[in-house]
Each structure stands twice: as C-alpha cells, then as structure tokens.
C-alpha cells in the first residue's frame, strides 16, 4: 500500500518505520521545519508543508494513496486532514489519532474518519485486557461500520471447555474472528475446541455485546 502520514513527530515516525518494515510505501507530511528530518526515516518520502492545506495535499499526490493517517498532536488538524483526504481526494481509508478523549465523539465518518485511534482509550483497554478474565473488553471501534473489536478471556472454570466453536450461538451482528492460545493465532473452524485461557476476539456491534456474554455463559 501507499500510505500518507500527516505529522512527522515521534508518533508519525514510529508508524512510518513500522509500515516500511511491512514493505509499504510511506510519505510523511510535516509542517514544522524543526521536525522535518528526512534522515530520521530515510526510506519514506518527505513533504514539507501543512497537510491542512489543499494545495499541499495536491502537490504531494495524496489522491494516489490507499491510506491516510492523521497523526499530529492536534485533534483539530487531524480532523481537517481526515475530512480533506476523504471528501476532496477520495482516499479509501482514513485513520485518525485522537489526542484528547473528550474529542473522540467528533472522529466519525462525518469528518471522513474510518478508524479513530485514541491512545488513552487503547492503553486503558490493554490494561483491562491484561487483568480481565470472563468479561468483554472493547479494544477498538470501527467508525465506518459502527462495530467494535472486543475480547474475552475464558476463565479456568469455563463451561465451554472442550466444546467446539460450532456450539457457540452468537447473535447476528457478531463474529468470532480469532482465538489466541498461548503463542498461537487460530482462525476458528467449526470443529475447533475451546480451552480455558483462550482469548476470543469478536467483531460486533455494541448492541449485541450483552448477547455475546450470554452465549459464553456470563
């Protein structure tokens, strides 16, 4: 993929390095001259300019990008970048960083955001995921589909131990997408048995999360 990242601070550079390691083409757009350091991520294309300006986005060829990531430290700038990328340049996928959780409600498809990533919320979710057994933990929200990625770790005394995945009666708007078992990532098949300690990852709408708990015996 070709990915444009608005904001070449520590977060933007880290994302760029990870994507380059994954063999993607990356372009960093940075408006501050003191943050413009192409040697920091040499394999990326660098553009000096304000990603909130249509002319800069045009000159950078952002319409050729598959993904735009608004990763600045300013929520207002991230919203503007997202809106321009989606409405003016028809970028297929827009991911935006949320710096202040109080602004999270703004990061929706109305502002061109497909996926909003709130670092404070994700850190809190990771803490919950690490200590919560037998309860659903919401890890991420997919704005475009209004669905969530949720996780539940089966406790030692789970009644589902040994039962196949096919016996799970999930609601219509929920899907079991992955089972994490130790260092294994299992794409669930109907005949796969469940085990205590399994981390189950679901994609589901918020309104059916209680039904997932019921299906898992909680």
From TrEMBL:
Residue ranges occupied by any RCK N-terminal domain in the UniProt entry: 1-117
Keyword NAD: yes
Ranges of residues in domain RCK C-terminal: 137-218
Membrane spanning residue stretches: none
Pfam families tied to this protein: TrkA_C, TrkA_N
GO molecular function: potassium ion transmembrane transporter activity
Alphabetized PROSITE patterns for the sequence: RCK_C, RCK_N
One term under GO cellular component: plasma membrane
Entry keywords, A to Z: Ion transport, NAD, Potassium, Potassium transport, Transport
PANTHER family reported for this sequence: POTASSIUM CHANNEL PROTEIN 2-RELATED-RELATED (PTHR43833), TRK SYSTEM POTASSIUM UPTAKE PROTEIN TRKA (PTHR43833:SF5)
Name the UniProt record assigns to this protein: Trk system potassium uptake protein TrkA
Originating organism: Amycolatopsis vancoresmycina DSM 44592
């Amino acid at each position: 993929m070709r990915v444009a990242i608005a904001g070449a601070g520590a977060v933007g550079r880290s994302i760029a390095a990870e994507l380059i390691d994954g063999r993607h083409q990356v372009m960093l757009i940075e408006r501050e001259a003191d943050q413009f350091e192409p040697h920091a991520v040499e394999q990326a294309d660098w553009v000096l300019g304000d990603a909130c300006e249509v002319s800069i986005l045009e000159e950078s060829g952002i319409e050729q990008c598959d993904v735009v990531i608004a990763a600045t430290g300013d929520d207002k700038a991230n919203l503007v970048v997202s809106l321009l990328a989606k409405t003016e340049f028809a970028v297929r996928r827009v991911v935006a960083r949320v710096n202040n959780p109080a602004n999270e409600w703004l990061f929706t498809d109305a502002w061109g955001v497909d996926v909003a990533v709130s670092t404070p919320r994700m850190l809190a979710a990771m803490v919950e995921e690490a200590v919560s057994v037998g309860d659903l933990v919401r890890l991420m929200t997919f704005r475009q589909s209004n669905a969530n990625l949720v996780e539940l770790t089966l406790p030692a005394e789970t009644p589902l131990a040994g039962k196949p995945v096919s016996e799970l009666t999930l609601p219509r708007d929920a899907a079991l997408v992955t089972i994490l078992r130790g260092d294994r990532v299992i794409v669930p098949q109907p005949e796969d048995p469940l085990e205590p300690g399994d981390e189950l990852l679901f994609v589901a709408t918020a309104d059916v999360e209680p039904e997932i708990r019921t299906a898992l015996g909680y």
